[in-house]
Amino acid sequence: MKKQNKLFFLIIFICTIYVHGLFAQNTNNNATWIWYPGDYEIWLNNEMQARRTERGAFFPPLWRYYSPYSLVTFTKDFNLAKPDVVNIKVEGQAKVQLDGQMYYGALENMEIPSGKHTITIKVYNQKGVPTLFVEGNNLVSDSSWLVTYEDKEWIDESGLASGVSGTEWEQVGSWNFNSVTALPSEYKLETTPWYVQNQETYKNGFVADFGKETFGYIKLHGLKGVGSVTVYYGESMEEAKSEQFCETLDRVQVTENTDSEYVIESSKAFRYVNVQTEGEVKLDSVSMLYEYLPLDYKGSFKCSDEQLNKIWDVSAYTMHLTTREFFIDGIKRDRWVWSGDAYQSYLMNYYLFFDNPSVKRTMYALRGKEPVNTHINTIMDYSLYWFLGVYDYYKFSGDKEFVKQIYPRMKTLMDFCLKRRNTNGMMEGLTGDWVFIDWADGLSKQGEVSFEQLLLARSLETMALCAKINEDIENEKFYKTEAGTLKKKIFEQFWSKDKGAFLHNSVHDTTEDKVTRYTNMFAIFFNYLSEEKKEAVKTNVLLNDNVQQITTPYMRFYELEALCQLGEQKYVLNEIRNYWGGMLQLGATSFWEKYDPNEKGEKQLAMYGRPYGKSLCHAWGASPVYLFGKYYLGVQPLTPGYETYKIEPVLGGLQWMEGTVPTPYGNISIYTTTKEIKVSAKGGIGTLLFKSVRKPSVTNGTIEKIGHQQYQLTIQPNTNYRIKYKAVE
Amino acid sequence: MKKQNKLFFLIIFICTIYVHGLFAQNTNNNATWIWYPGDYEIWLNNEMQARRTERGAFFPPLWRYYSPYSLVTFTKDFNLAKPDVVNIKVEGQAKVQLDGQMYYGALENMEIPSGKHTITIKVYNQKGVPTLFVEGNNLVSDSSWLVTYEDKEWIDESGLASGVSGTEWEQVGSWNFNSVTALPSEYKLETTPWYVQNQETYKNGFVADFGKETFGYIKLHGLKGVGSVTVYYGESMEEAKSEQFCETLDRVQVTENTDSEYVIESSKAFRYVNVQTEGEVKLDSVSMLYEYLPLDYKGSFKCSDEQLNKIWDVSAYTMHLTTREFFIDGIKRDRWVWSGDAYQSYLMNYYLFFDNPSVKRTMYALRGKEPVNTHINTIMDYSLYWFLGVYDYYKFSGDKEFVKQIYPRMKTLMDFCLKRRNTNGMMEGLTGDWVFIDWADGLSKQGEVSFEQLLLARSLETMALCAKINEDIENEKFYKTEAGTLKKKIFEQFWSKDKGAFLHNSVHDTTEDKVTRYTNMFAIFFNYLSEEKKEAVKTNVLLNDNVQQITTPYMRFYELEALCQLGEQKYVLNEIRNYWGGMLQLGATSFWEKYDPNEKGEKQLAMYGRPYGKSLCHAWGASPVYLFGKYYLGVQPLTPGYETYKIEPVLGGLQWMEGTVPTPYGNISIYTTTKEIKVSAKGGIGTLLFKSVRKPSVTNGTIEKIGHQQYQLTIQPNTNYRIKYKAVE
């Protein structure tokens, strides 16, 4: 290379820096609306949950609502290489201070000279959530800003240290409101038109079938005349036709001023609508605006069994319908955020959408604020699932920032729980507590229920983990000790050598001689059992028909997970075929709140003493998306955020299967037959584990033998692996 | 009487019952809007305090804001002799249940059959406060309803006791929104027109004088053309003319569409306005809408000294200007609710308006909700004054209902305070605390300040009293013990035998050798001192010019009160003449935040480093209304609510005085010369105490001699007493 060329490259290099500098100055497009963490989520959840109606009547949740702070202060230290001009926009009213000085000018085009600065913006909004959007060439509102609801500004003239009371400044909350016009208060899910598949005349109107379970706004077409139109919604045809007992309905008063096309204000869940008119009014037809949260289906699953493929598809659709502003239970009736239900949605989400914001929104919404004086959703187990949700979120996402942000609220909820323990150190249902566990006939909730203690032990372990992340050494030790003590006590008090299983509960210092599935199956995937005890539980409880059967998809979720952990994938596939396949045979287009194969006809639609009370699209019905991803494709993180992970594909009797599992790095792809495994991943270090009756070979890397017929292979990112092997039958 | 007549009377009697029954059915006009106690007050206070502006810029409080609950449940058990038709109106959305059954009908004309019922109405409103108005012939919303923000409805299917978690149902809050159209969310103070007394051309516009300090909305008259009109407000002419430094201003953009008469949106405090135009715009004149809380001036005072009469009048007006949605500090600048300032307003209110709702509103607004993690207004003394406010409110009003309603919030605030004590059991300023005491040069706030401990002792005594009213025996004992221990320690640590006074503070276990007035004067009216110590304090502190002088009307309030309690009414009258008379001589039409007779000219207007920073209408400037009522007319309750009270008129050198002091029963009227005392009262049992050099006589009742030249007379309600005597000079 000649000298001249060197100079030329140097010039290019300098120009590049300059251009890059300009770029940084002028195209900082990452401004986003920010708020006090959790407050927008709480507000939005209050609004969403209050959209439940029952036969036209307003039906908000029974549990307490929390409120956003109406006055908060945002702040940011920053350094400008050159002067900046910023636009400040708030929802509410703003007081701006630059370097401690009150700013009296307009919020548009505020000029800030170069150099080091601190900007402080107080926002007041008592009608909603105080939110802030700042957009300059350099200074923009983003997750690096801090916020407080306390006073950290007042200068104490006495000379005492001022400002910092109570808590530290906190990191702001944000989501995806990335333009000044995308006001958080005006957030709406997206909609798209959807048309009727079949319409037939019925009484004074018609019944329309949208082809499958859906959710959205009914649109009336060709309205003429004056009178009223009533829309009776049905997840089943029977429900839509039952004007007396359908769970939801809307009535529209049509006047001379009503447009011929009219969209009903509130969205509903249905497959069928029964449209009836009164008076002189007429209409031609209906369509709907399907309402949904835009999400990528990152996870996927296909296999040699078409029924299972259909089950996965319907599960994924069920999961999408119930993944809305938050993870809700069911779309027809409650439309509320229940911690136990949401906990399963988190898990399914990791194998389908891997949408962290949905998990975080839901966790904030459920937890609420201070002081804690009631269990989440009033249910003891639901407070405890909430901790488990943090554990899993960290495991799958590796998001330490969130763990830090939520940790203070974890501590206060745990304080609440620990204060409610009895003298034996166990949590019993106190006045006002609901001990739920499951919808199951004759299930005792009395006294010390072993299941609740098990959840508490796991919650305490979660606290220890999160205390460590927060460098809260003292509490880490405390939670560890408490978890250890409790686990020991659970085994002493509830493990029956006779039965080879955990007993259900103790009342008045006497442990009842009854076994249920709950504690036993959770102990398996909490990994609390020795191999010997695991086998005992499998035989004596999980595969024992004399132990009370589970009839909700909710607890089937865990039961099947426990069996998968015990290597019973083949058995579980059959269970899935029977149980979820059973719903499909009855015409399900989304999965249900409860399914009892023994119930016949319209009885399948009834629940809570109401003929159509049962929800036919319930998040907890969607567990196959989780089971297929985790226990058949066999992918799960080994260290937080998939930094390391394992892939342990199990065909469970299938001829082949293929699919993807999302991770923070991108998807892991797997294809398996009994002779071949193909794997690739976008990041992290994976370990592929598989069994082969003959020595396997691979295109890349080195297969290691780790036991009898057991092999492993390290999976590096962005490499296609193709393994030849012969599956163990 | 003939038999016939008896029958006639019987018929009349029956008819009367019937008519009375009808009356009761049809004219139940006592329905009022109800809400969760304190929530409306918190909401309204958030709104009011956010109306502060500084030179056009939004300036909300520095301290934390609390939020109302957005979802609350109201309930009422009732019994109908015959069917009722009720109208239910809410601010928000409502879910109605009658006897546990969901009601699907319209909220207008809901039919309720006769018999025993429970109605439960859940109201959701996240934009403001969920409020409820129910109006039937019998069933109406009033203070007998109960409310909760928790879940007390959920039926636990497990059979566990359901519903009652955390707290009991609470009594609802209400004020005076007594018609369905008087929506709490639309509350506004009243207004009345007020005209300019003098207007003179100034620069590009004019300066107008409204004759005295006032508060309201400026109205522009005869607007023509296009341009901007700027209104510079001034409590003084100097401030109005200082376009650069006046504290408040408003700018109106006048377009072709602007009406010729235009009312500025936000109300301000001023006596003068400087109206300047830019562009082609012109206007003729301004007037204003005076904005006020409608209140009766129940207390009154007149005497032989015209200057004192003027002082009383200006004090009363100052008090009225600062008694608004809440008791605020000053009308020009802060317009905020400060606990220490409000505490004095409560006391003045008892001798002027006796408006209990204003006290209760302010107490709720200041206290906020749970959890407590900062002092009220961030000031340690201001948390403690809040307790004293409850003490006095109960003493003057006798309102046990309020004490019961607020007691849970008293406990949590006291918990917060007690947890912040040091190992010596005393409260020192911790990080984030502001130890205020007074605006005074060089006043130490370091370490254990004796004044703060004294307030804490009194607060603990208040807690014991309120615990007793709430039948909380255990805590009554606890608070009593804590109060006793602390009082003992205060005397041991701070009382100096040498100085015959309390010392100011201890830093690092060493009590500083400095005396200030604060602890000493409060110890007097808390009645903590022996007669001997009282005399010592009077000589060594209160009448000792070497002890740092007080320059705020705020602490003058207490200093003069202490002197009055020591019988120094004559001395105090001269102090009032000099201090408040000094302000009048400088042209005050309302009393100031601070007055230092040594300051000259415009310096009197400056504060906080700003030339017009000082508030010229500050509640704490109005103390003469309190002192005249309590220590000259001499009236105060002996038992709560004036059930018993004393009148101890002291002329303090005046030839005569007359006046009224309000009580829950009505006014007590007093007229006194050196020879004659006239007294009458509407209720309660009074004791008139007076001194006479000769044996007095009275028109009614019997005068009792109780000491050398000392007499007493029992005052029965609704009786005019006229005593002949000869005053002791």
TrEMBL record, chains A, B:
Domain Alpha-rhamnosidase-like N-terminal residue range list: 72-275
Membrane-spanning residues: none
InterPro entries linked to this entry: 6-hairpin_glycosidase_sf, 6hp_glycosidase-like_sf, Bac_rhamnosid6H, Bac_rhamnosid_C, Rhamnosid-like_N_bacteroidetes
Domain Alpha-L-rhamnosidase six-hairpin glycosidase: 298-630
Domain Alpha-L-rhamnosidase C-terminal: 634-670
Top-level taxon of origin: Bacteria
PANTHER family reported in the protein's UniProt record: ALPHA-L-RHAMNOSIDASE SIX-HAIRPIN GLYCOSIDASE DOMAIN-CONTAINING PROTEIN, C, PUTATIVE (AFU_ORTHOLOGUE AFUA_3G02880)-RELATED
Protein name: Alpha-rhamnosidase
Phylogenetic classification of the source organism: Bacteria, Pseudomonadati, Bacteroidota, Flavobacteriia, Flavobacteriales
